[in-house]
Every structure is written in structure tokens, then in C-alpha cells.
Amino acid sequence: MMSVQDRINDYWSIRAPEYDAYQRRPERADADRAAWREVWGSALGEAPLDVLDLGTGSGYVAFLLAAMGHRVTGVDLADGMLAVAREHAATLPADRAPAFERGDAVQPPFAAGSFDAVVGRYVAWTLRDTKDAAGHWLTLLRPGGTLALVDSTWYPRGIDASGSDSLIAGYYDDEVRAALPLHDADSIEATADLVRAAGFVDVTVTPLESLLELDRAYGVAPHHEVQMQYLIRATRP
């Protein structure tokens, strides 16, 4: 029998080419890059930093941070996503490409104090063992290091209400959803509280108005609604 994590991995592996193409759609590519550079620049400050990108997927955030001058490692458990990310990386000079490794965002396979910053985009909602995850992120950071998460409350009425059959059938079923503490959170404070409880300090939650305006102008992915996204930023003491 497949584990909860195996089913999540399979779903995102299957989705990888479509997901990557949507992230890079040309009609809003330049505006997206500019908006995200502002988001991550405000969160991380000046480059270069050693950065871990949790649940990197096809590497959108990792490539953007590398282009900003950071030294980036992306981890994911979806082999399909990693394959796409590595294909993109192969088109860049080695000193400008992120490194991509198979690794669990809940328990990233690195030594304590390996990074100046740990980031994640759209990953918190689909994590099991969120308390354990946040504790690991804290240990991976050097003193004074930054945690920066971007997410939203994607399914506050439950995944069923989104009408996304592919999410429900065989992947994000009842057993999987029961294992994901944040999948149906109705406030971003649930994620912020998790960060606070792990021992991070100076936790802030910032609405990302620029992304909301882009979504209003260009639309969002099928089975999603236009809604506010937030940057949660915190510091390791």
C-alpha cells in the first residue's frame, strides 16, 4: 500500500510538465519575475546567501534566487518535478544554476546550520508533520538566519469544494488530507503560529498585493480562486 507521501509525490510528478508550463506562461512571465524578485528581495536582503528551497518543484523560486546572486539548493520528493528542474538547470552555466536534490521538505537531508535562509512557496499546505518540519527548518539555519514562506489558504472549505477531481481521486483522498494539518486552514495565521511555536522570532505576515493584482489581471490556475497570498518571514534567534 502506498504511503501518504508516496501519493503526494506521484501526484506532483504527474503534474510536473503542466505545472512548469503554467508557471512560465509567457503572457505574464516578465511581470511575475519582477513581482517575485521584489518579494524575495524584501525577505532575504542582499545576496549572496546559502539558501534552501523547500519543495522546489520545477525550480521556479530556486532559479529566480540564483539569478539574484544566491547560492541555492532545491529539494523535492517528486521525481517528475526534479527531472524538469534539472532539465532547466542544464541550460545554464554551472556557476549560475541551482543544485537540485531529492529530499523531504519535512526533514531536509542537511547538517544543522547549513543555510543562511530557508524558503518555500506553496509548500506548507501540503506538508505532513508540520510541527516536526518547522523544528527542522530552525536547526538548518545559522543564528540570525531567515525563514521565508509564501502561501495562502487555498482550500478553506476543503479540497472537495474546489471541484478538482484529479486532486481527489487517488491522490489527495481522505487519508492524505487527514495527514496534512494545514491543507484546509482558513487563516494564514495557522502557518504563522506553527513558525512561532518552533522557536522562530520576529515573525511577520505580509499580504502580497502585487501578486493579487497580477492574478486579477491574468487569472489563476483551474480550480483556484483569486485570493491574497502572504509572505511569512521569521528569524532564527
Question: Describe it for me?
Answer:
The protein is globular, with a radius of gyration of 17 Å. The chain has a single domain (4-235), classed as 3-Layer(aba) Sandwich (Rossmann fold). Helix content is 40%, strand content 19%. β2 (71-76), α4 (79-89) and β3 form a beta-alpha-beta unit. The termini are far apart. It has helices at residues 4-23, 29-44, 60-67, 79-89, 130-140, 165-168, 174-178, 189-197, 209-218, and strands spanning 50-54, 71-76, 99-102, 115-121, 141-151, 201-207, 230-235. The protein contains nine helices and seven strands. By secondary structure, it is α/β, with parallel strands linked by helices. α1 runs parallel beside α4. It has a seven-stranded mixed beta sheet with strand order 3-2-1-4-5-7-6, with helices on both faces.
Layout of strands and helices, then pairs:
Elements: H1 4-23, H2 29-44, E1 50-54, H3 60-67, E2 71-76, H4 79-89, E3 99-102, E4 115-121, H5 130-140, E5 141-151, H6 165-168, H7 174-178, H8 189-197, E6 201-207, H9 209-218, E7 230-235
Parallel strand pairs: 1-2, 1-4, 2-3, 4-5
Antiparallel strand pairs: 5-7, 6-7
Helix pairs in contact: 1-4
